[in-house]
Amino acid sequence: MELDEYQRGALRTAAARDKQNELLHLVLGLVGESGEIAEKFKKWVRDLDSDEARIDRADIAKELGDVLWYIAVLADYLDLSLDDIATANLAKLASRQGRGVLGGSGDNR
User: Fold this and answer.
1) Dihedral (C-alpha) 8, 95, 37, 55: value to the nearest 10 degrees?
2) Buried b (16+ CB within 10 A) or exposed e, 79-105
3) Residue 11 exposed, middle or buried by CB count within 10 Å (0-12, 13-18, 19+)
């Protein structure tokens, strides 16, 4: 599946753009779903001794899907294509790798 195809599919279950506070809803939803992934890994560390064999991959996949949905719909709200975002991100990372600056911090390195 292509990313833009996924994005179009995600929009079928999204609220209307003109719904009051929809942008804030999308941003907070993305943060919340990302937090759910972090929470699951926190419990993995706390309860399962960080044993990678005991990661519930199916459960994590569901949460990653929720994050992907919010990213797709938020990008659309901002008139951004997931294909374009992904292409630009890979180009940015390849450039950093070529210049030997993959490590470090900051977007403009």
Assistant:
1) 110
2) eeebeebeeeeeeeeeeeeeeeeeeee
3) middle
C-alpha–C-alpha distance, residues 91 and 83, integer Å: 12
Going by the DSSP 8-state scheme, the letter that residue 78 receives in this structure is T
Contact 71, 82 (CB under 8 A): yes
64 phi-psi bin (left φ>0, alpha ψ -120 to 50, beta other): alpha
Helices (H), 1-109: 3-11, 22-48, 57-77, 82-98
Residue with tokens 């390195």: 109
Structure-block tokens of residue 36: 């759910």
Structure tokens at 106: 């900051």
Mean pLDDT, 10 residues at a time, over the chain (109 residues)? 97 97 98 98 98 98 98 98 97 92 82
In terms of Cα–Cα distance, which of 71, 82, 61, 85 is closest to 14? 71
What token pair was written down for 44?
A: 């993995």
